[in-house]
Amino acid sequence: MQKTFILFFLMIISICSCEENSIPTISNEEDLKKYIVNDYLKISYNTSDLYMINCADLSFSFENVEVLKISKSDYIDISKQLLNFKLSPSQTKSDIDFAIEYRDSKFCLNHLGSLYRNGRKLQSNADFVYRIKSKTNYYNYFSEEDLIKNDSLISKNGLPFNYKPHNYEVNGKLLENDSLVVEKKGSVEKKNIILTY
Fold this sequence. Notes:
- By secondary structure, the protein is an alpha+beta fold.
- The protein has one domain (28-196).
- It is built from six helices and nine strands, in the order ααββαββββαααβββ.
- The chain has helices at 2-21, 29-35, 72-84, 126-135, 144-150, 152-157, and strands spanning 41-46, 65-69, 98-102, 105-109, 115-117, 120-122, 169-174, 180-185, 190-196.
- It has a seven-stranded mixed beta sheet. Strands 7-8 form a two-stranded antiparallel sheet.
- The longest helix is centred in the first third of the chain and has 20 residues, at 2-21.
- The chain starts with a helix and ends with a strand.
């Protein structure tokens, strides 16, 4: 009898926690305002390769939006840091691989630790860039070899504790010349994330 009660109790707790953590699909600005009650960051990045692109070519869109929750203290710290970065004395341009939209500003970051706010260069902060990319699972979309070879933040800091490479379903197609073409099934080239607490 006692074992049955314990199993029943655990089942109720798991059902309640699943309902609490389930987040509906966010497909437009109205859904975002309706379902996300806390402050949030809109994040976008490319998952197909580690090449950097122009800041204007990467922006958040309501396609395949994933909602990630972090601790409130981490969120507050990240959002405060974003707003408190000082302008860099040298206003050089550089390509980026990661974009954040927050409070009417667009922040662009790259694996060199460079940051830009609305096109203006901020003082570099490699630790911040590494931290935000780790919190949003950015590194999980790339192989360990590619990251070590092409990402200077990984070369400096190593793989993050939460690194878990994304396993794509692989499909092979045999061509007439007997060569094999491997395709990643279900992969998306751009990730859109709402980061909240």
